[in-house]
Amino acid sequence: MEMSTPKPSKRNFKSKLVLQITFPIILFTIVTLQISKNISLKKSPIILTSLPTNHVELPTNYQELRPKKVVPTKCDLFTGEWVPNMEAPYYTNESCRVIQEHQNCMKYGRPDTDFMKWRWKPNGCELPVFNPDQFLDIVKGKSLAFVGDSVARNHMQSLICLLSQVEHPLDISPTKDDNFKRWYFESYNFTLAIFWSPYLVKTQDNDPNGKAGKTFVGLFLDEANEAWTTQINGFDYLIISAGHWFFRPLIYHEKGEFMGCRYCEIGNLKEYSLSYGYRNAFQTAFRAILENENFKGKVYLRTFAPSHFEGAEWDHGGDCPRKSPIKANELNLEGENMEVYTAQMEAFKEAQSMAQKRGLKFGLIDMTRLMLVRPDGHPSIYGRPAKMNEIWPSDCVHWCLPGPIDSWNDFLLEMLKSEEKIFH
Questions:
Q1: In whole angstroms, what is the distance from residue 43 CA to residue 64 CA?
Q2: Buried-most residue among 149, 242, 350, 352 (CB within 10 A)?
């Protein structure tokens, strides 16, 4: 007897029909959501911005989520963060011949080395570490001069140390004065110079009260210092900077006459703001460059690099003992640092506008904010031999070599490379 196949009931048939319709819908929904998720992740990385501690944490797979081939339309080199660079430093205090004693931190026993091992990482792009071969190829047959104070000289020495990986320059200075040095890279016909002018304008020592030993520096705010203005003709690049000397007691002159002072508290002389003298000095310096018809080079302003005295003033035991950078969002530019930075930028923007009419190019190496968060790279007490019963002020103004100041040349090279692309 043959067994017949039972007919499906209406209830079973309906259940199967529901499953056949529902399953594809669910599957389609899952696939669609996954595709949408993937597209969203590829468009932009996950960035957490609402943490109450102001510290930004990224997911562990952040590098995988970042866009692979997205090129930003505009990159602000000067906005970013200091990140570890274990390959640094690229020279030592023994391999570089031009490090001055007061910046030779390793020679005088600084015990930590982490302050050397950082590089600047701009937001949304990369800033390559200085390449000495590339730099020398660009400046071959050219010349570059620094104008400013001892921090400008510190910068020049950093550049020489980095370039010494390729070639040690010849000292062709016309004088033994370290404030007016010239170096020559013979294989590249490249000349490097420093012109000492901490105020950029003409100066003289004043003693308006007639008291012995109480001397104020007088600044002629409308007359540029000829010690450098007569030397820049023929230079292809000029890096101008100044800052820390303006924090001293000063007498201001205009049109050859006393007009007031800063930090002097002298009788009926008018007291001016710190920014007044600073802004006017830069305006005069820029005007001297623009009015010099024999100067055809490119001008860079390197902005003020703040000092980092903590605990007290420089002459009352202040020191800079930190051993690592501060997060960029944990310290604001304020007070006198903001005052001089603002004055400097105002003078620069005016000059940049006038330079366009003159056919000159003015560029900006904006170091102020990113160096504000580098209190770890100063010589402190390691810029001289330790001696019993002898106390010297800590140096929280200059920078150890090797050290953070080496990164300034990362910016300089990147700007020179951009300029080369424009003209080629």
A1: 12
A2: 242
Question: Which whole-number Å values give the CA distances from 73 to 65, 69, 124, 224, in the listed order?
Answer: 20, 13, 10, 39
Q: Which residues pair with 147 in a beta bridge?
A: 195, 240
In this structure, are residues 129 and 410 in contact, taking their beta carbons and an 8 Å threshold?
yes
Residue entry with tokens 């004088």 = 175
Catalytic residues: 150, 395, 398
Helix, strand, coil content of the chain in percent (nearest 5):
35, 15, 50
Cα–Cα distance measured from residue 258 to residue 254, given in angstroms and rounded to the nearest whole number? 7
Whether residue 402 is preceded by a cis peptide bond, meaning omega within 30 degrees of 0, is yes
Task: Count Cα atoms within 13 angstroms, Cβ side, for 140.
Answer: 9
Report pLDDT digits (tens) over 65-115: 333 444 445 789 999 999 999 999 999 999 999 999 999 999 999 999 999
Structure-block tokens of residue 6: 């039972």
- Cβ–Cβ under 8 Å, residues 219 and 278: no
Q: For tokens 């006038």, name the residue.
A: 354
Write out pLDDT tens, residues 16-52. 433 444 444 444 443 333 433 333 333 323 222 222 2
Q: Which of 129, 238, 237, 144 is nearest to 184 (CA)?
A: 144
Helices (H), 192-246: 226-229
Instruction: Give CA–CA dist 194/363, Å, rounded.
Output: 19
Q: Tell me, what's the pLDDT at 97? A: 93
Judged by DSSP in three states, 14 sits in helix
